[in-house]
Amino acid sequence: DTKFFIFDNKTNKRIMKKILFLSISLFAATAAYAQPSVTNAYNANKSGDFEAAAGYIETAITDAKASTKEKTWRYRGDIYLNIASDPALAAKHPNAIQLSKESYFKSMELDKYGDYAQEIQVSLGKLQTVIDAKNGEMLKNEDFCGAAENFVIMDEIAKKFNIIDSVSIFNSGLCFDKCGKSDKAMSAYGECAKIGYNVPAVYRYMAEVHLRDGKKEEAKKIISEARAKFPKDPELLRSEVNIYLAEEKYDQVEG
Fold first, then answer.
1. Burial class (CB in 10 A: 0-12, 13-18, 19+), 181
2. Cβ distance 53 to 41 under 8 Å?
3. What pLDDT was estimated at residue 34?
4. Which of 52, 116, 155, 181 gives 44 a disulfide partner, CB atoms 3.0 to 4.6 angstroms apart?
5. Straight-line distance from the first to the last Cα atom of the chain, in angstroms, rounded to the nearest whole number
6. For residue range 45-100, what is the model confidence (pLDDT) as tens digits?
7. Dihedral sign, CA of 21, 26, 32, 35?
8. Which burial class, exposed, middle or buried, applies to 166 when counting CB atoms under 10 A from its CB (0-12, 13-18, 19+)?
9. What's the rounded Cα separation, in Å, for the pair 94 and 85?
10. Do residues 200 and 235 make contact, with C-beta atoms less than 8 angstroms apart?
11. CA 125, CA 119: separation in Å to the nearest integer?
12. In this structure, which long-range contacts are made by residues 160-163, counting pairs with CB atoms below 8 Å and at least 24 apart in sequence?
């Protein structure tokens, strides 16, 4: 048989108080769990134990409350900046540069009044210096895909401060081109063309990517449009002639 329990008002109040107490205790326990992780991450980073700091901060960002705090992400950016700056640790954590950048960007998003804007800008400048040194090694070792991704990060940081880093955009295109990522190379070259960087040469690079991918019509279209803009450029003329010669269209060459 179904049994029904009826409580008087005093009993109901005691039950509600107990439920409320349990809810508050659970919330406090969760908050207490997150807060030491942030503090421990800060202290470990300050003492130079960057890997331990990374472990603590990764725990912290899984907490709903801690993940909404600007300082959580700023600390995370600092930690991964330090990891990226250490060659041995950077080798163990190849995504440290990306994680540092993402963390600083998140910190900027949460820093509604710009209290730490200058500090974060300085930190992102340090990250760019680390990337620049890393790219020197990557290019020396012909790790063009890795270097390309780093040049993209350099450009993203610059754009965050409304700066056009044309050199990084172009270098990302070159590196993507060298490692065979045609779509990304074309995107970077196209952006260079749009801002007028390294033209008309960049049009030739775009045409060469198309030719390598067997897209002759697209290559001819790019060269034709570029020739209209830069009719006196001898390299563009040479590229156009070579395309027609390869197709044995000698009448086009004579024309």
1. buried
2. yes
3. 52
4. 52
5. 101
6. 999 999 999 999 999 999 999 999 999 999 999 999 999 999 999 999 999 999 99
7. negative
8. middle
9. 11
10. yes
11. 10
12. 160/105, 160/108, 160/124, 161/121
Written as six digits, the tokens of 196 are 């007028």
Q: Quick one: pLDDT at residue 3?
A: 45
The pair of structure tokens assigned to 2 is 């179904």
Q: How far apart are CA 158 and CA 146, in angstroms?
A: 19
Given a cut of 50, the residues of the chain with pLDDT beneath it are 1-7, 19, 21-33
| 3-state class (DSSP) for residue 98 | helix
pTM for this model (two decimals):
0.81
Q: Tell me the backbone φ, ψ of residue 133, rounded to 5 degrees.
A: -65, -40
In DSSP notation, 31-82 reads HHHHHHHHHHHHHHHHHT-HHHHHHHHHHHTTSTTGGG-HHHHHHHHHHHHH
- The neighbour count for residue 6, using CB atoms within 10 Å, is 6
CA 25 to chain centre: 39
Burial (CB count within 10 angstroms: exposed 0-12, middle 13-18, buried 19+), residue 59:
middle
Unique residue bearing structure tokens 């406090």: 28
